[in-house]
Amino acid sequence: xxKLTRFLLPLALIVSxxxxxxxxxxxxxxxxxxxxxxxxxxxxxxxxxxEVPVKDTDESGRYExxxxxxxxxxxxxxxxxxxxxLAGEGAVEVAEGDRIGDSTLKFDVxxxxxxxxxIDVRRKDKSTWRVxxxxxxx
Length: 138
Fold this sequence. Notes:
By secondary structure, the protein is mainly beta. The protein has one helix and nine strands.
């Protein structure tokens, strides 16, 4: 193992661990920028947080919340072609400019936890595509 690798590996682990935690331990973290395209969960382009519009320039994909009920509105932000529902034979057609799964999720958060949100497009029926919570880290 090179000296550079021995230096960078621990640094990468520290950085990835700190991105999961809120700067304030009394808050929760919500991640919207990660996806599982092969499992038909797309990242979320957030358009509103707690019913307050988000600027188009905010592409952080990471939000901190006080404990309690909150809401995120958004739509699919990934190329859905890796999802079996949207690709291959019998694929659902998505027009350019479509806001895939444009919806609002209301959810409760607990301080110290990290939540991953995405757009669930597993079913061929577009009316079922919506923001979901697909992972929670304690």
